[in-house]
Amino acid sequence: MQELVIKNVKTADYKNINLNAIFDPNGQHNQSYEFQKSDVTSPYVSKEGKLAVSFYTLHPGKSNYPYHQHCGIEEVFYIISGSGTLKTPKGEIIVTEGDVIVMPPNENGAHMLTNHTDKPLVYLDIDTVGSLEAVLYPDTNKVRIMAGNLHKSFKLDTEVNYLAGE
Q: Is the pLDDT of residue 130 over 90?
């Protein structure tokens, strides 16, 4: 049974995550996708609940993830301290301490957060969780499918016939 969770952003244990080191070890991409993350609660870990809640820190010049749009989950950012640039379908928006950003699971919710300042950007990330998620990457025409331990990315123009090989 899931327990009550209380964590403080200032004393939470953070993990360093470098997506470039994981997915681009040869350094072929220009953008730096690096952040510190502390999970407050996650159904992916506890196997209970419907919310994933995490603290993130973006250091100067870093982004959280490539520009993307969720198809099934909703996401909320609350900017705790600092400021950054939020890339959206309508252009770039400066977000600062106290801002709440709600990303719907459709093309209007496409986003990428980047710290273009000289101070850390700290924010709370709250996601609804589903057993299956598709994430679209509008700039690169990709889709990422996530279901349990299956995490695969595909170019959208590689579609096959539904009955191919059956």
A: no
